[in-house]
Amino acid sequence: MEIEFIRALRKRLPKSDQLAVGPGDDAAILQRDGSVVTCDLLCEGTHFSLANDSPLRIGRKALAVNLSDLAAMAAEPVAAFLAVALPRPDTEIAEPLLEGMLPLAQQFELAIAGGDTNVWDGPLVVSITLIGRCPHQPLLRSGAQPGDQLLVTGTFGGSRLGKQFDFSPRVNEALQLQGDRLLHAGIDCSDGLALDASRLGEESGCGVAIDLSAVPISEAAREMASQDPKRSPLEHALGDGEDFELLLAVPPNAATELLATQPLKTTLTRIGSFIEKSGLWREETEKLVPLPTTGYEH
């Protein structure tokens, strides 16, 4: 539903002189001052459960997913605006929700500048609008070129075992790489590695070929596969989502240098390349085989 809605939005809305980058990327960029603006909505029953997840962890996640969107744009955080619809029996959770956000706000020198609260008879809903700025050229989804290498940070799969709440937004990593002018395009992996890789290719007007043997699989994905053999560790890595790692289109020479030097605090791995043929593909010795775009679709 989300992808179709965004496509309809882009077709329906007129071009605006107020926007340098509009709907379709991880955040918008305002023409006037270059501010980067993103908004994410988290709903009980879809993104968390109050029965199982503490308000502290929910608050942290709500801010972290927005920070991940700024990372995907190579933008540094400036200010956040928080809107919360509190369930009537549990209004006391408002303070621990905020407390969960404060360590990340301090880490990234981010001001929580305001917002709104309301009480209703429905579930907990948390929405954060985050404003940032790009100290370098903004990183978009639309800049990949055939021949670019697909590099990723970290590992994938099994986020339900904890990473969906405890992940580190890759803001500093993106700023470092974009500051060195090493990137052509990027996206954060929120809905699944396969699905988000296909989105990166689609926005750039090219295809993506993935070397499945190179995908960095998390220990959590292996643990989940051992509990339920119906899905392999690789299937978890490709489709679980909420990894919040970066998928990056990198020119070949820069990719070789990055893989050799590993300049980040997290590991960079080459998992494929961008090709002229549209679609998502599996790299094999002499041919390309279609790869399903598994992942979470709203």
| The CATH homologous superfamily of the largest domain | PurM-like C-terminal domain
Amino- and carboxy-terminal Cα gap = 5 Å
Order of helices and strands: HEEEHEHEEEHHEHEHHEHEEE
Number of helices: 9
Class derived from helix and strand content: alpha+beta
What's the shape? globular
**Strand element count:** 13
Poorly predicted tracts of residues: none
In angstroms, what is the radius of gyration? Answer: 19 Å
| Adjacency order of strands in the biggest sheet | 8-10-7-11-9-12-13
In CATH terms, what is the architecture of the largest domain?
Alpha-Beta Complex
The CATH topology of the largest domain comes to Phosphoribosyl-aminoimidazole Synthetase, Chain A, domain 2
Helix content class: 25-40%
Q: How many strands, which pairing sense, and closed or not: the largest β-sheet?
A: 7 strands, mixed
Mean pLDDT: 93
Number of domains: 2
Regarding CATH, which class of the largest domain? Answer: Alpha Beta
Strand content: 25-35%
